[in-house]
Amino acid sequence: MRVFYSLLVLGEEKRENHKMKTPKYIFIVGGVMSSVGKGVATASIGKILQSRGFEVTSMKIDPYVNVDAGTMNPTEHGEVFVLDDGTECDQDMGNYERFLHRDLPGMNYMTTGSVYQAVIERERRMEYGGKCVEVVPHIPLEVISRINCAAHTAKADIVTIEIGGTVGEYQNVLFLEAVRMLRIEHPGDVLVVLVSYLPTLGEDNELKTKPTQYAVRTLQSTGLQPDIILARAKHALDTKRKEKIAFNCNLREEDIISAPDVSSLYDIPLNFEKDNLGNIILEKLSLRARKKDMRDWGKLAGRIHGAKETVKIGIVGKYFLSGKFILSDSYISVIEAIRHVAAFWRVVPKIEWLDSEQFERDINTLQQLSEYGGIIVPGGFGGRGIEGKLSAIRYCREQKIPYLGLCYGMQLAVVEYARNVLGLKNANTTEIDPKTKYPVIDILPEQKRLMVQKKFGGTMRLGAYQTVLKAETIAGEMLIKKSIFQNVIATVMR
Fold first, then answer.
1. Which residues have a Cβ under 8 Å from the Cβ of 8 and sit 6 or more positions away?
2. Confidence class of residue 482 from pLDDT cuts 50, 70 and 90?
3. In this predicted model, which residue has the larger pLDDT, 386 or 19?
4. What region does 126 belong to: left with phi over 0, alpha with psi -120 to 50, or beta?
5. Can you give the three-state secondary structure of the chain, one letter per residue?
6. Could you read off the pLDDT of 123-162 as tens digits, one per residue?
7. Domain ranges within the chain, ordered by starting residue
8. What fold characterizes domain 2-299?
9. Domain 307-463: homologous superfamily in CATH
10. Which residues of 435-448 are buried (b: 16+ CB within 10 A; e: fewer)?
11. How many CA atoms lie within 13 A of 145 on its CB side?
């Protein structure tokens, strides 16, 4: 396998990587159901290992043929998180950044589409030397190559990699094959963590272990055995359940980590440490901790729990309704930003969802906005619900309700001001009305050229850009306050 693997790995950069110290790899996979908490589990594992003195970087693998998350429906997939380099990726990348307290590059995110695209483009450039390019092994090898590239660029001792979806899904097979191949190549350096859900049954809320047992057997069918199971459940596992899972899944009892529901995401690393997760990982990877210090993280968690005063925040959007359910994942980064600033001010944020289309159906419902300490209109696309958002923005301006417009929300604030203060009747964004007499928001010239070519993916001007604000403006004053806030949070989290 070593010879086979070495012959197939292509490019000088990859050969250079073999000369460098091999990092440790921790793969986090899901069992039983989606949205089980793999992202925050990955972030929490990273934070625990970071607190032990290791350099950690985190990655996300999305099993979609989309090249990036920018073309995915937010209601179906959840929010698109944008990295500093403009990469549109999964919201879990935001969890990694918040927990590790660092900015991550676009190479730390991959999809099925981006992997296939890279392999096909390489084949077109004859970089495979005329070999027959096959799904196996070339696709898994591309995945391994990207993981190594991200690890070595970050000079990471440990790289945590979340594989989206659940084991047993057809979309995951090639990524799990990459894990299997990497484990053969580096048997002592690869760890597999299964995050699996234990449902409850009956009035006594008995936790059922069978679904997790089936998830483990499904994972084993790919040639992989989990090293650790994070048992997600409504409440903490008892000894009996741990014994049962361990016995049926070929693990020690201490390898079963209880992961009950918590009131704050920032409790999760501390909760894992109650079951000694950090030491178990280090033991399995033959590592010795350089330090152990979660005190600052504990202060942050304590600050959140110590808040008493409540602030009511309304988010006016259109991507959170799915039938009778509210899918808050569409705006998860907005929620986490609110929680961060609330922790700083020692207040409890009460976030409520307001459907912009209801303001179009009944203008009188706008009066409910007066009940909130602040209103946020986040990003979005398209014309649906826009007039309702504009009505909400106008109401906030006239009633002097604190308003924050993010991306599209900021653009619509400009449209509202142009219409109702400057008197530019029917002013609009050209995205909604290409023929508007007053195009106060327009598409960038380079975007127009791309749209003519039907190139819509990854074409927006996104990422971190330098901005110059005048000190005497409200925006300038807010930036100064933001800098103070960031310094305080950085101090608390480090």
1. 137, 138, 141
2. low
3. 386
4. left
5. CHHHHHHHCCCHHHHHHHHCCCCEEEEEEEECCCCCCHHHHHHHHHHHHHHCCCCEEEEEEECCCCCCHHHCCHHHHCCEEECCCCCEEECHHHHHHHHHCCCCCHHHEEEHHHHHHHHHHHHHCCCCCCCCCCHHHHHHHHHHHHHHHHHHHCCCCEEEEEECCCCCCHHHHHHHHHHHHHHHHCCCCEEEEEEEEECEECCCCEECCHHHHHHHHHHHCCCCCCCEEEEEECCCCCHHHHHHHHHHCCCCHHHEEEEECCCCHHHHHHHHHHCCHHHHHHHHCCCCCCCCCCHHHHHHHHHHHCCCEEEEEEEEECCCEECCEECHHHHHHHHHHHHHHHHHHCEEEEEEEEEHHHHHHCHHHHHHHHHCCEEEECCCCCCCCHHHHHHHHHHHHHHCCCEEECCHHHHHHHHHHHHHCCCCCCCEECCCCCCCCCEEECCCHHHHHHHHCCCCCCCCCCCCCCCCCCCCCHHHHHHHHHHHHHHHHHHHHC
6. 999 999 999 999 999 999 999 999 999 999 999 999 999 9
7. 2-299, 307-463
8. Rossmann fold (3.40.50)
9. Class I glutamine amidotransferase (GATase) domain (3.40.50.880)
10. ebebbbbebeeeee
11. 20
Residues 6+ apart with CB under 8 A from 449: none
pLDDT digits (tens, 9 = 90+) for 424-475: 999 999 988 989 999 999 988 887 787 777 777 766 777 888 877 787 887 7
Q: How far apart are CA 257 and CA 230, in angstroms?
A: 5
Helix-helix angle 12-19:135-153, to 10 degrees: 60
Angle at 142 between CA 216 and CA 221, to 5 degrees: 20
From 353, 367, 371, 348, select the one nearest 317 (Cα to Cα). 353
Q: What is residue 132's predicted lDDT score, i.e. its pLDDT?
A: 94
Q: In what order do the strands lie in the sheet with 347-355?
A: 347-355, 309-317, 374-377, 403-405
Q: Determine the pLDDT at residue 75.
A: 63
CB atoms within 10 A of CB 293: 13
The rounded distance, in Å, linking the Cα atoms of 357 and 420 is 20
**CB-based burial of residue 4 (10 Å sphere; 0-12 exposed, 13-18 middle, 19+ buried)?**
exposed
Q: Are 60 and 159 in contact (CB under 8 A)?
A: no
**The length of the chain, given as a count of residues:** 494
Q: Is the model more confident about 79 or about 14?
A: 79
The answer to whether the 2-299 and 307-463 domains have the same CATH topology is yes
